[in-house]
Amino acid sequence: MRKISLLTITYLALFWACKEADPLVDPGKDILDSYGEICNDTLYAVADTFLVKGKVNTANSSKLLLGFYKDFESRFLIKFDKFPADTIAIDSLKMRLTSFSSFPQEAGSIRGKIYLVTNEWQESVNSDVDWDYRDNIDYSPETSADFEMVSEDSATFLIDLPTGLVDIWRDTTAGNRNFGLLFDYSEVQQIIEITSSETFNENNLPKLIFIYRNTALDSTVKDTSIATMDASVIEYNGTFNPENVYIAAGYIVNAFIAFDFSLIPENAILSSVDLFLKQDSDNSIINTNKGSSFYLRNVVTDYDQLPYYRIDSTFITNLAYNVLLSEDDDKQLRVINSIRPNIAQNFIQSIINKDIKHGSFYLEYTNQANEISVYAIRHSADPAIFIRPKIVVEYYLLPSSRI
């Protein structure tokens, strides 16, 4: 698994022009026309890179992921703790699961195998690099089961399991312990999303269904047990194309982009800022089922010290530093229109004023429940200027030095 990737730092051109025109966004009452002409500068990124940190904790996700898609593969672990009394012989054992959606969205069939887990695991297993499912499951046919699921929205599946599993989980006299089950996949080119034990809808909780005979009442009894813990185990076996910069959700990949703000005049008062990050659709893996959020923060350490970096902690508490980006119709990430003046005055102006030494930015990508998505961005060395990362800055020039 690739842990850290650093792209080559490449220096690019700057385009600068002053004009007599309206700014992108009204700078507000604090910026007066008497300050001078409105200038529009386009700064192209002088450097960019990305860091691949690996897995994310899936313990609290409301979905379990199963399948394979574009080098991402996922299995899931699940455990139940409540069983009928030891004296009861189980006639039938089924697991009830609910499919939420799939990625990509086209419906398809997923076949796979269910295995008995033989060792302890925590719900944080996906972030534990020392736990490998391959060494912790029983491949015996007596404790395994085949399954097939169709990735339809809100579909419910009843999967037959060997009744002997219950005897193993209940009988602790022979040193047995209940570590649950692992769901593995085969023959699939998509990832199905299944509701987990963290779902808010009780009807969709994963359940075991026990059917047995009550001789005293001369009747058939159906009992259920709800999953007590579960987690997806996600692996990425691909490579990241060095022609791009990457950010990802469900797998920790963060990007860094640097600009040379020294080319902005020191007597500039910023009125508006916009950022343009062009998506590479061919190398992106976007889960359209999930709403996405993109955030930008200031990096406050030297750029060449990466991956040892610090970011502006005021981002967490100060909305002026909460730079939200959104994607336009041309597949570009841009600063949300309504906050461009605030970003200019509270985020970039500090760099122009030299209150923040470096012009580097940390880019983070999240989606609902932090499930798999990868966003590829064209990087600073791309030969096509119009798709390089860039910032468009509009400002007023003071007639004299900065106050």
Q: Which features characterize this protein?
A:
403 residues; mainly beta; Immunoglobulin-like; 2 domains; 12-stranded antiparallel β-sheet; 10-stranded antiparallel β-sheet; elongated; disordered N terminus
Summary, kept brief:
The protein contains three helices and 24 strands. The chain has helices at residues 164-170, 314-317, 340-352, and strands at residues 14-19, 38-44, 47-55, 63-69, 72-79, 90-103, 109-117, 137-138, 145-150, 155-161, 181-186, 191-195, 207-214, 219-226, 229-236, 244-249, 251-258, 268-278, 292-299, 323-327, 332-335, 360-367, 373-378, 390-397. The longest helix has 13 residues, at 340-352.
CATH topology of the largest domain: Immunoglobulin-like
Please give the CATH architecture of the largest domain.
Answer: Sandwich
Radius of gyration: 27 Å
Fraction in helix? under 10%
CATH hierarchy, class of the largest domain: Mainly Beta
Strand content: 35-45%
- What about the largest sheet? 12 strands, antiparallel
Average predicted confidence as pLDDT = 79
Q: Unreliable runs, pLDDT <50, ≥5 residues? A: 1-17, 19-32, 311-320
Query: Can you count the helices?
Result: 3
Shape: elongated
Task: Please tell me the total number of domains.
Answer: 2
Q: How many strand segments?
A: 24
Order of helices and strands: EEEEEEEEEEHEEEEEEEEEHEEHEEE
What does this structure look like?
The structure is a single chain. This protein has 403 residues and is mainly beta. It has 2 domains: 14-55 and 241-397, Sandwich (Immunoglobulin-like); 72-236, no CATH class. Helices cover 6% and strands 43% of the residues. It is built from 3 helices and 24 strands. The chain has helices at 164-170, 314-317, 340-352; strands at 14-19, 38-44, 47-55, 63-69, 72-79, 90-103, 109-117, 137-138, 145-150, 155-161, 181-186, 191-195, 207-214, 219-226, 229-236, 244-249, 251-258, 268-278, 292-299, 323-327, 332-335, 360-367, 373-378, 390-397. Strands 4, 5, 6, 7, 8, 9, 10, 11, 12, 13, 14 and 15 form a 12-stranded antiparallel beta sheet that branches. Strands 1-2-24-18-21-20-19-22-17-3 form a 10-stranded antiparallel beta sheet. A two-stranded antiparallel sheet has the order 16-23. Strand 4 (63-69) and strand 5 (72-79) form a beta hairpin. It is elongated.
